[in-house]
Amino acid sequence: MSGTTTAAAPHGRRGSGAGAGANRWVVLVVLCVSLLLVAVDATVLHVAVPAVTEDLKPGAMELLWIVDIYPLVCASLLILFGTLGDRVGRRRVLLLGYALFGVASAIAALADNAQVLIAARALLGVGGAMIMPATLSILRQVFPDRRERAVAIGLWSAVAAVGAAVGPLLGGFLLEHFWWGSVFLINIPLMLVSLPIGRWLLPESTGDRDGPWDVVGALMAATGLFGLVLGVKRLGGGEDPLGLTTLLSLFLGGALLIGFVRRQRRRTHPLVDLSMFMRPAFSTSVGCIVLAMLALVGLELIAAQYLQLVLGLSPLETGLRLLPLTVAAMAAGLAGSKMLSGLGPRTMVCAGFCLTAFAVLLLTGMGGHANDALLLSGFVLLGFGLETTLFGAYESMLSEAPQTQAGGAAAIGETSYQLGAGIGIALLGSVMNAAYAPGLSSVQGVSAADSAAAGHSLGEAYEVAARVGGGAGAALRSAARDSFVHGLHVTLLVSAGLLLLGAVAALRLPRRMECGASVPAGRAEVPAPRDPARVGAGSSVDV
């Protein structure tokens, strides 16, 4: 059975097709607002960590979980809820995600201890995992024409870039005027508005509901991804790679995911149609997403440290220096559909990788003193190239996937994004540490113990230098700055190599954007109207 869409038209016009036709751009606005909330919430807490620490006084491990539990849970559950949306209705899962996100935000805002805040952040991750794949899969259904869909994905991706940048700025503004819980409280009125508007405007759609939904497979995927992402995050956080928790997380996560793949191959009605990966355009697009994030997310964190610790900028000044990157990413998202139709997926993604690699190599000119022109040009090229790459990869992946698997395909894309980001932090962080630490091993007047402590990070090196004082402390501080810049250059070169590898991989993408026959808007995928309350009726669940 093919995927179906029920138009959620305004009351009194149900069945008119408004939900998928005349109002499809309004539907896009609703979906973009949904994505904006999730993207903002992923970063808004970062600036509130000091206030949370002062108020709740969490331990070191509790503080780590407060920050990490949201992306960890969200990444783990994307496949589960993406495929569940294909089964019971994507709008239904999205609206449940809205409700859960609002409830979890209220609990987080009013949390009076670290444990409650961790639990609330975990619930926010569950809500985010419901919302993210649903927005992309509904977009796939509402825009059957590929040219229009490319424009919609461009706007969708531009909103994601805005959300990532707005989070810290919004959090800083709220903290200046209110208490830290306000960074969560702002979600509640937005969700109260989004629920009825989403129920009124968004179309309901499902995928192929033949056969039962594989509950065991969904739980295997969720638990396996949780273990794998946890292990990768521990590696990226500087934990011992041979530590029991890290090794156990990676081993169990990998084993469960291997078991999940084998289970899906045996089933008549798999949770995720793995045959999608046999299509070169789909598998290559997923690989390009992983490589792009692997090369750049860890680099972004290191760049923020460079701006603050080497150049001595404040957090607000750092955010403003990185703002051109976000603006350029927005511009690439808005221009993406025209570039895709003119260049084709292969040239667009390959050129995006090459432009990003050039920007990364340009940034190797960064030294111990500020070079504003270099930073501005490097960050603009970096943002434009990265968004060009991700736009082309996401659009090709989503267009290659069958409509019946739109939720699963969207979940695979988002999971690839999260895994690439996690692995990138671990990999580039390890490269940075390996290049940074040796430069501090023989600073005159500094003991071996202090040199070892300074080798952990530049921030810790500054603390050790202040404690040592005198000429030895000044020498250690100078050596740490020089070593960090050297490590940054090595990391940039490794990142550029990964990006060029992505450019080679992109050569497997189609040369041209195949659009096929255009379907008149408003009539596409809108069969005889059905009662939305009955969507999912008759679906069975396999345990």
From TrEMBL:
GO molecular function, one term: transmembrane transporter activity
GO biological process entries: response to antibiotic
Cited Pfam families: MFS_1 (PF07690)
Keywords of the record: Antibiotic resistance, Cell membrane, Membrane, Transmembrane, Transmembrane helix, Transport
Subcellular location: Cell membrane
InterPro entries reported in the protein's UniProt record: MFS, MFS_dom, MFS_trans_sf
PROSITE patterns per the UniProt record, alphabetical: MFS (PS50850)
Domain of life: Bacteria
Main location group: membrane
Its membrane topology: Multi-pass membrane protein
Major facilitator superfamily (MFS) profile domain location: 27-514
Residue ranges of the region described as Disordered: 522-543
GO CC annotation, single: plasma membrane
SUPFAM superfamilies: MFS general substrate transporter
Keyword Acetylation: no
Transmembrane segments: 25-51, 63-81, 93-111, 117-139, 151-171, 177-201, 213-230, 242-261, 282-307, 319-336, 348-367, 373-394, 415-436, 486-507
Keyword Transport: yes
Protein name stated in the entry: MFS transporter
UniProt source species: Streptomyces venezuelae
